[in-house]
Amino acid sequence: MTIRPARPEDAEAIVAIWNAVIDGTAVTFTTELKTPSGIAADIAARGPAFQVAEDRGRVLGFATYFPFRGGPGYAFTKEHSIQLAPEARGRGLGRALMVALEDTARAERVHSLWAGVSGENPGGVAFHAAPGFVEVARLPQVGRKFDRWMDLVLMQKFLSPPR
After folding, report:
1. ∠ Cα 17 20 25 (to 5°)
2. CA 114 to CA 157: how far, in whole Å?
3. How many domains does the chain have?
4. Ranges for the N-acetyltransferase domain (predicted)?
């Protein structure tokens, strides 16, 4: 298994993983499917801030970060997304991706990394808590999907010491 920066040719595999999550789970509140061209553009724009887990030439998961909010005051705060193919879960790939993503973020002087986790995803909350993300807010009924309201759990990890 290898963790490496994503390449444009990984876009189709990433789309397959991400769209399965969008279509079939409450892990994300979005209903807009990803496209290979959109993911390829994200890979080009984010560079090393878009990582993949690969095993024998097959992409099994990805992690990426992006601006938390617009404006220069938020330049050192990022939000991330991490997803694995179902057959890749429970093999340590998520943890390996998270380590690689945090290392890249630290190298880019990111101070604070955020996770927005569906309240219907206790496994996602536990996954983030294990490497030190802390729940800082639970926003009730801010997401809607599958004809129901869902909570959003905001989790944060400082990558550099607070001042």
Report:
1. 125
2. 7
3. 1
4. 1-160
